[in-house]
Amino acid sequence: MLGVIDLPTYLAGLVLIVLLPGPNSLYVLSVAARRGVRAGYTAAAGVWCGDTVLMTLSAAGVASLLQANAVLFGIVKYAGAGYLTWLAVGMLRAARGMWRTRRERVVESGEAVEAAGERPYRRALVISLFNPKAILFFVAFFVQFVDPGYAYPALSFVVLGAFAQLASFLYLTALIFSGTRLASAFRRRKRLSAGATTAAGALFLGFAVKLTLASA
């Protein structure tokens, strides 16, 4: 179909890959839990736009350039790790404040986040774009399901990308509505909110370290 081979295997692999936790999905869940469905979809839109850019770059051969140029790969890698670290520090600082004021209402901390001018779309987009391993992944995974003899390989990438975005939409939608349910629990239990924020910050630090140690 349009140069795509072994579609069932691709879809099965795609589901498993999408379900793996990553900084994008974790951030969307965090935003939905703190600010509701609308903000969650705003963050998800940043993820989808970022993934679309990465898929386009992959199809254009940028992944091969990153693999061949260690300096360029290093620049993108460390920039992405630095941004994830910055986000992690912000989360841990917020968690520290929550632990200090456990007896106060969680709603107040949510309002503080609003006042800080958080922009979910932009943050999610940057998290997506500053991930060179994602570009390499799209090529390494997609190319296995493109018929080398097909006259229009770009069209094959579009089909594969469309399925990937659909899977991402369904998964992030589930996370967003799960996040809104978590929000009610966070409002009732300040310790739970502080603990979840601490865990999210620690995970983002882990993502940053993992990206730093990655090789092309």
TrEMBL record:
Keyword Transmembrane helix assigned: yes
Keywords in alphabetical order: Cell membrane, Membrane, Transmembrane, Transmembrane helix
Give the highest taxon in the source lineage. Bacteria
Record field: transmembrane = 12-33, 45-66, 72-95, 124-146, 152-180, 192-213
- Membrane topology field: Multi-pass membrane protein
Q: Of which family is this protein a member? A: Belongs to the Rht family.
Name of the protein in its database record: Leucine efflux protein LeuE
User: Which source organism does the UniProt entry give?
Assistant: Streptomyces siamensis
Q: According to the entry, what is the taxonomic lineage of the organism? A: Bacteria, Bacillati, Actinomycetota, Actinomycetes, Kitasatosporales
